[in-house]
Structures are given as C-alpha cells and as structure tokens.
Amino acid sequence: MTNEEKAKIILESMDSNGVQINWNMEKYYTAGIIKGLEEIKKKENAINSGM
User: Which of 3, 11, 42, 45 could cross-link to 34 by cystine, CB 3.0-4.6 Å?
Assistant: First the structure.
C-alpha cells in the first residue's frame, strides 16, 4: 500500500469520526500526512538499525 493510499484512509477515517474535512484541501492534507508517514518510517528504521 502506498503512502498516498494510507493518507486517503486516514482522511476518510478522520471524516467518519467527526473531524470536518474540507475536501477541497485534500491534496494539502494528503501531503502533510505523507510527510508524517515518511518521518515515522525514518524513525522506525533508525530504531530497528540500532541507532
């Protein structure tokens, strides 16, 4: 699953749980979520490699 697909799932989950999403801004939300997912991956890789 790509980060973009994951971001879409996160947005849809937020929307269905009461967070008001302005879908006209979806590309900006998606970009922010993707950056967060990439940062999580970097930190997980650092932890797993013993750094």
Answer: 3
Please report the sign of the dihedral spanned by the C-alpha atoms of residue 41, residue 2, residue 16, residue 32: positive
Q: Look up the pTM and report it.
A: 0.86
For the chain, the residue count is 51
5-51 pLDDT, tens digit each: 999 999 999 999 999 999 999 999 999 999 999 999 999 999 999 86
- Between CA 15 and CA 4 the distance in angstroms is 16
Per-residue b or e along 38-51, where b marks 16 or more CB atoms closer than 10 Å to that residue's CB: eeeeeeeeeeeeee
